[in-house]
Automatic annotation (TrEMBL):
Bacitracin is thought to be involved in the inhibition of peptidoglycan synthesis by sequestering undecaprenyl diphosphate, thereby reducing the pool of lipid carrier available. Keywords: Antibiotic resistance, Cell membrane, Cell shape, Cell wall biogenesis/degradation, Hydrolase, Membrane, Peptidoglycan synthesis, Transmembrane, Transmembrane helix. Belongs to the UppP family. NCBIfam families: PRK00281.1-2, PRK00281.1-4, undec_PP_bacA. One of its GO terms (biological process) is regulation of cell shape. Pfam families: BacA (PF02673). The chain crosses the membrane at residues 49-70, 82-104, 110-129, 141-164, 214-234, 246-266. Its main location: membrane. It comes from Gemmobacter aquaticus. It comes from the Bacteria. It is found in: Cell membrane. This is Undecaprenyl-diphosphatase. It is an enzyme of class 3 (hydrolase).
Length: 268
């Protein structure tokens, strides 16, 4: 394994960490970057596993809140309902992820044109929702009702298609269902933990026979860099969206999608 491949893994890890919690599709960015850089991981496990590095960054930022929630759940109805809400939101994507794993990895992950188009469409939707979002009924992620949590979980299923964005789908779903901008982002953060932990565990199991030492080295480098970059984004994102909303990310999606689409049509 060359130093170049590790450098590419580090660059992709940085890209993953910077985009995982933004509604811009980290997987879409990774797959497009990998396509243009000529990077192809064994079983496409790299692109899935390093996402957990970014997600674990939440633990470094929200460790105190997570401890309070779980340590008080036995006597605090709000904490108990929040845990159940996240679990309910997690279930639809977990079910579809298992049933459609082969199609997602072997077909959708290998279609960069679809990813570029989805980035553009998602950007337009995000701009529309950010401007016309209904007045929030729930400002705090802890207050999201169980029925609303299920709706957010169904929106998350759309993120099985690369380019849609897991955080984008859950945030748009939350906004349209009456959750405030900060609460939508925070609920998406917490939902990412069981979702990505399950996705990584299942993907590693499915690819256990094709991952060699070189593949694990790339994953390790990408995982570590994604963790560091993810921690930076989590600390700064909530304050930004509370003040400015999500329009910037909608325009970013459209720009990246258009550039990628033009490059693909040009034969790159």
């Amino acid at each position: 394994m060359s130093d170049q491949s590790l450098l590419t893994a580090a660059a992709l890890g940085l890209l993953e960490g910077l985009t995982e919690f933004l509604p811009v599709s980290s997987t879409g960015h990774l797959l497009l970057a990998g396509h243009f850089l000529g990077f192809e991981s064994a079983g496409r496990a790299f692109e899935i596993v390093i996402q957990l590095g970014a997600v674990l960054a939440i633990l470094s930022v929200y460790a105190g809140k997570l401890w309070r929630v779980f340590s008080t759940a036995h006597r605090d109805p709000q904490a108990r309902r929040f845990i159940i809400a996240v679990a309910i939101a997690f279930l639809p994507a977990a079910l579809i992820g298992v049933l459609a794993h082969g199609f997602i990895k072997n077909v959708l992950f290998e279609t960069p044109m679809l990813i570029a188009i989805n980035l553009i469409i998602g950007g337009v939707i995000l701009l529309f929702v950010d401007k016309w979002v209904p007045a929030p009924r729930y400002d705090d992620a802890m207050d999201v009702p169980l029925g609303t949590a299920l709706g957010i979980g169904l929106f998350q299923c759309l993120a099985m298609i690369p380019g849609v964005s897991r955080s984008g789908a859950t945030i748009v779903g939350a906004l349209t269902l009456g959750v405030g901008k900060r609460g939508a982002a925070e609920f998406s953060f917490f939902l990412s933990m069981p979702t990505m932990a399950a996705a990584v565990a299942y993907d590693l199991w499915k690819n256990r026979d094709v991952l060699d030492g070189a593949a694990w080295a790339q994953i390790g480098v990408g995982f570590f860099v994604a963790f560091l970059a993810g921690a930076f984004v989590v600390k700064s994102l909530l304050g930004y969206v509370s003040r400015h909303g999500y329009a910037l990310f909608g325009w970013w999606r459209i720009a990246v999608g258009v550039v990628a689409l033009v490059a693909l049509l040009a034969g790159f």
